Each structure stands twice: as C-alpha cells, then as structure tokens.
C-alpha cells in the first residue's frame, strides 16, 4: 500500500536544514502521522574570517544528498521511485543573513544565527523600534552592515533566510512563512511586517531602497506558496526522476516546525527544541508588559504571538563529551556505537546527586546573549570538595544544556506567563526518561515527549506540507456545500493538528520531581555565579583555529 501511495504521488516531503544535519521526511499527505521514509546528510558550519557560515555549494550538495538518501530508502523499503509528490516544504535554522543582488547572486557568505557580532545594531534597533531585536535576527545583521558601511549594500536587492532561499530556488517564489519572517523583522497585528516600524527604520537607516522591497512576502501556514518547478525538481533530484508540480508550503524556521511537531501552537502551550542550539517557544495569551532583551517576540506558523527564549548553545558540548568517552571505549577494545555511548552516559546521570554534586558544566561553544557573553569557552568546573563521579559529571552536563534556557524562562515566569503543556523534541530526548526528567526539573513544569521527538522539525515541515495540500481540498469541498460559509472553508492549523495529526498520538509526560527541582535550583544559583569564570575564560583564552562547532550528534 505504501509503495502504491508513493508511486501515485500521494506523499508529502518535509526538508529541514538544521545545524548539523539536513533531514528529509516523507509522509502520507492524507495522514502525516504515517512516516514512509527518512533521509539525512551531515554537514558542518565553519568559522571563516570571523564569521560562522556554511559554503553556498554545501547547501545544494547537502540538499541533494539528503534527498538521495531518502530516495534510496524508498527504493530499499518499497521497491518504488519518487516521481511526483503531493506536497513539499522546506524549513531551516532561523534568522541570520543572506544578501542578494538583483540577479540572485549571494553578495556575502551566509551569516548564520550563531554570529554575535551584531551587538551595536541590535541595541540601537531595540531602542528605536521599542521591541527586542536579538543579535541573530536578519534586521540586526542588515543594520550592522549599515553601521559598518559594508560595500555590498550598494548592490543589495533582497535578503532572505536559509529556508526562504531554498524555497525560492525550488519554486521561484520569494515568500516566507510568518514564523520564519518574524525572525527577520517584527510582525504586526495583521500578520505582516509591522508597517509603522518599517517606516521608522527607513527614516532612520536611509537605505537606497525601502526595507519592504528587500523582504520576502509573508504567508501563514496553508497559504499558496507556489509549486515545485522543473528547475526546482532538477536541483533537488539531479537524476531527473522527480517531476515538478508538488504544492509548496510556506517555508518555515526550525522553531516553527518544532511547534508543529509537538502540537504547541495554541495559547498556554509551549515546546523546547534541543539540538546544537536550544530554545523554548511559549504561545502567549497577551503581549508582554515590558521589553526583555532575553525574550524574542515571534509567531507560530499561523501567526499567533510567541515568546521565544533562544540559546545559541545546546547539546553540542554534551555530544563532545560523549565522543570522548566513545573514543576511550574504542581504545580499551570495547568500541560502542555512538547512540549506545549516549544512552549509557545519560542513564548514568540518573544516579547523580540532585545538584550534580557541586559540579558545573558550561556548554558555551559560541557567544550566549542571555548569559551576557559575546564569545564562548566550554568549561567544566569543580571545587575541591565537589563529588567528582561519572554520574554527577553527566548530570552536570545535561543540566548545562538547560541552564541558560532556565535563566530566560525565569523572565517569562516574572511576567506571569502560564503554561499548561510543555512539549520537548530533539535527539537528546531519544533516551527515554533522562533529559526529559531534568528539563521538567529546570522548568518546574510537566514535560511531554511524543513519538515524533526524534523526527523533529523535518517531520513538522512534512506536516505543514500536508496541511498545504489539505487546505485546497477542504475549500473545494466547501464550495459545493451551500451550508458551509466562506469563512469556514479552511481549517486553522491548530484544528488540523488536533483533529488530524495528534488525535491518537502516543506520548509520555514527566512531572517535575521535587528533589530534582530543588537540586537544579541550587545548580542554577552556582551556574549564575560561575558565569564570571566563563567571562574570564573568554577574556584570557583567545580562540585559535576554530573550524567547526558541530562536535556533537544530538
């Protein structure tokens, strides 16, 4: 049955360009809970000329490799070929800066979200626009280029995110999903860029053309974002097997697809996505009362307001330690698969003291604005009287993944933001009952992990692609039914997820353990105090020869 579904072009494809892997996920377009096949390609960012970036050719070769891996899996499992698709969608790491001239030529290397060189611009814009402008937002990168009088601005015709760029190459449409667009420039109440703030910026910056002309068109989930073109199909699948025509979903950021993958798009819900970076998204019932530099105001893929706590550093340092222990196991003659190493070490953390025995782990491979750091230096710190055991070491490192996030979440708690459900996804949650339990302690709230936790954003984007296919079908059915009003023709994203995707989903919820909550609070108090040591390390130890920050696999 699956082979027939694929051969008849009734599958939807989600692609996500993450920090360490490009993943592809193929689902049944009519029932996206059915994952037909997956594919992946590992890639690394590079630190070149003081900028975290990915080479342009790595984007396209990586995209093709992930798709080829998916196609090979389809061939192996079903003996079928992917010739047509019902729907397709692209997501990617949010924010950053991609600048193009009128011919679509990239003017400067891709500046990723990891870069923290935009401090002066972000501070100036936060004051000017009366809303927090994070360092990694596209407008912060653009304005920093203005402040630095960069030569490429004379040729600048448009800017985009990584997801928007790939979507444009696949479909020919210069559009962006509202969730990803909200990381370029603030979104207004009408779901488009805030016109008043755009006018304020134009008057202030004096660019050679209006800012609105540089930005992609904003679309909500389910809107018409074009279709896969012949050129796009050939770019994705150079073998020529894949044909054009798939309905394209608006391209989204990894934060938005994480919300979809966890059904966290309604008020009083939230999710945590843990990978190379880690962030929490909380759907708001009302605007925040004050501007907080540690809180981003973004949106769901449907355009609802969201408070985002984004930390540049997630599970990479934990992955580096797992790699070290894996190398030791191999050297001892007892080699273990990487996943087995992770599971062994994470389960050891369960036996650690609630406060990690006095140990501290700072996972800052790069700058961390919430912690006040322009650069990062991974540190593992203990006092002479600390209880230095394997269990405490690993608990400290898992706590370290969540510590900076917890600092930001305390700000939301101070604003009275309430949560009924917090969902989590990402590779670190594959080992059941460990990272989930410690995150519940860090947030002092129940944390739910579903069956799709390891699939993550690629699956979430496949769901958005299926939603884009679903909407015209609903509209067509409504057109022939006089009892359905025009406003009822399309389903909301929240209704679609609840009724069609998560109605029978399996999940496990971990309630916070009081001892863990108290232990993590003690850990966080020491962690906050120890940030002075982290800052001193940044000042005393210059970076030399950094090639990549992607040592981990989580």
From TrEMBL:
Q: Name one GO molecular function term.
A: kinase activity
Q: Where is the Carbohydrate kinase FGGY C-terminal domain?
A: 271-468
Give a yes or no for keyword Transmembrane helix in this entry: no
Q: Which domain of life is it from?
A: Bacteria
User: By its UniProt entry, which Gene3D superfamilies does this protein fall under?
Assistant: 3.30.420.40
What region holds the Carbohydrate kinase FGGY N-terminal domain? 12-235
One of the Pfam families matching this protein, by short name = FGGY_N
User: Which InterPro entries did the record assign?
Assistant: ATPase_NBD, FGGY_C, FGGY_Carb_Kinase, FGGY_N
Name of this protein:
FGGY-family carbohydrate kinase
Protein's organism: Microbacterium dauci
Q: Which UniProt keywords apply?
A: Carbohydrate metabolism, Kinase, Transferase, Xylose metabolism
Return the similarity comment: Belongs to the FGGY kinase family.
Parts forming coiled coils: none
């Amino acid at each position: 049955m699956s082979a027939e579904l694929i051969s008849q072009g009734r599958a939807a494809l989600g692609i996500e360009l993450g920090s360490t892997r490009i993943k592809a996920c193929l689902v049944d377009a009519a029932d996206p809970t059915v994952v037909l096949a997956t594919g992946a390609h590992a890639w690394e960012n590079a630190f070149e000329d003081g900028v975290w970036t990915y080479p342009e050719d790595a984007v396209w070769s990586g995209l093709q490799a992930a798709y080829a891996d998916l196609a090979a899996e389809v061939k192996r499992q079903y003996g079928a070929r992917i010739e047509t698709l019902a729907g397709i969608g692209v997501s990617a790491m949010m924010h950053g800066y991609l600048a193009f001239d009128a011919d679509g030529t990239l003017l400067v290397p891709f500046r990723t979200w990891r870069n923290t060189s935009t401090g002066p611009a972000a501070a100036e814009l936060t004051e000017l626009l009366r809303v927090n402008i994070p360092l990694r937002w596209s407008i912060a990168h653009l304005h920093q280029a203005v402040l630095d009088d960069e030569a490429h601005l004379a040729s600048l015709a448009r800017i985009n995110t990584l997801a928007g760029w790939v979507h444009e190459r696949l479909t020919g449409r210069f559009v962006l999903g509202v969730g990803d667009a909200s990381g370029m420039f603030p979104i207004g109440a009408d779901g488009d860029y805030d016109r008043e703030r755009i006018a304020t910026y134009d008057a202030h910056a004096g660019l050679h053309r209006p800012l609105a002309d540089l930005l992609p068109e904003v679309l909500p989930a389910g809107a018409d974002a074009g279709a896969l073109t012949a050129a796009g199909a050939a770019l994705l699948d150079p073998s020529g097997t894949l044909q054009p025509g798939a309905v394209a979903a608006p391209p989204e950021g990894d934060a938005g697809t994480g919300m979809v993958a966890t059904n966290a798009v309604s008020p009083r819900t939230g999710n945590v996505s843990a990978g190379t970076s880690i962030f929490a998204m909380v759907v708001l019932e009302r605007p925040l009362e004050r501007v907080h530099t540690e809180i981003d105001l973004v949106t769901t893929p449907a355009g609802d307001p969201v408070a985002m706590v984004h930390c540049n550093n997630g599970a990479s340092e934990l992955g580096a330690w797992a790699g070290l222990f894996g190398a030791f196991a191999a050297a001892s003659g007892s080699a273990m698969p990487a996943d087995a190493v992770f599971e062994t070490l994470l389960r050891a953390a369960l036996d650690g003291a609630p406060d990690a025995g006095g140990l501290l782990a700072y996972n800052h491979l790069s700058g961390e604005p919430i912690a006040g750091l322009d650069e990062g230096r991974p540190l593992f710190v203990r006092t002479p009287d600390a209880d230095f055991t394997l269990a405490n070491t690993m608990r400290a490192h898992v706590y370290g993944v969540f510590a900076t996030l917890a600092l930001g979440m305390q700000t939301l708690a101070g604003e009275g933001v309430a949560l009924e459900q917090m969902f989590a996804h990402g590779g670190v949650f594959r080992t059941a009952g460990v990272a989930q339990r410690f995150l519940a302690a860090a947030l002092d709230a129940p944390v739910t992990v579903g069956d799709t936790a390891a699939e993550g954003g690629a699956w979430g984007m496949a769901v958005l692609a299926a939603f884009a296919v679903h909407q015209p079908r609903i509209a067509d059915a409504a057109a022939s039914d006089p009892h359905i009003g025009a406003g009822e023709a399309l389903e909301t994203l929240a209704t679609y997820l609840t009724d069609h995707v998560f109605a029978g989903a399996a999940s496990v919820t971990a309630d916070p353990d009081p001892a863990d909550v108290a232990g993590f609070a003690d850990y966080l108090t020491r962690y906050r105090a120890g940030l002075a040591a982290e800052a001193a390390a940044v000042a005393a130890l210059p970076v030399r020869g950094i090639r990549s920050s992607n040592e981990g696999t989580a």
